[in-house]
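User: Please check token order:
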Amino acid sequence: MITRRDALLHGTAFVGATLVGAALGTLTVSSAVAQNYPSRPVKMIVPFAPGGIDVVARLVADRLSTTLGQPFVVENRPGGAGGSVGAKAVALAEPDGYTLLFSSPGPATISPAINRNAGYDITSFAAVALASSSPIVLMTNPAVPVKTVAELVAYAKAHPGGVHYASPGYGTQPHLLGEMLKAATGAPVVHVPYRGSTPAITDLIAGQVQCYFDNVTNVLQYIRAGQLRALALTTEARDPQYPDWPTAAESGLNGFVATYWNGVLAPAGTPASVIARLNATVNEGLRSEEMRATLRKLGADTKIMSPAEFSAFMLAEQRKWSDVARAASIKVE
């Protein structure tokens, strides 16, 4: 029996032993949680309309369902600036691993930076796994009489207010890239926000808007079919898969280096053991040749990261896009 005198004389050792015991107990509980997880269906929220990033989300969800033995159900929940409605729902959810977010850069790293009333920020999430990344392409409707970025800029200046660029929502990565284009070139392009990639692409093909930045995964089939025209990629070097597409830098747009990514997030406070199990399962799927081949067909690459690496990557993305938004005075009051 430890007396009060013993505790006072050997307080440091006593407290240390207590903390170690508590830590071991926490690890045991966490391990038990992971072993039993998941014991019921898991909801994976995509904060945009169907037809965009949910293509990759469903690939990831199918892998998780097959491996972990419970349904991972993808739910589209669009709304808010840059997908903030769906992101906030996950941020406020119980941190038990049964509500996840499948996010692109906008909801996780841009929306909370431009909207002080978003109701969440990047610290509201625990990074789980980065699923894929793909280059971003600036494209036009083929009816627009341009084949290069320089020609697009000249055309926009010759037709003030006549060139509209689409985005999948206010505060999304394509929106910020469009504002960067305007600032860098002086082209008077006009922003037209949509509720997701699919309606934006539909109107671009129909000629309702004239140009659009989007990830290759969403638009590759339309470019190959001649329904859209690629002008430039936001990559540091030409992509071997698209050797005829110049980079933005080659096209005179310096500083236009951006990657579109998506990945799985959980509410902050989700047990580390649950996050580790999800990360291992997602990464196992990404290492399979089947998934790698499927993503390549979509114009995307696999990216293997630990939760810590993904977290650091997201913080860097937040700093980058916050700076862009600030320079373009993009904010939600």
User: Anything to note?
Assistant: Residues 113 and 323 are 9 Å apart (CA to CA). The chain has a mean pLDDT of 88.
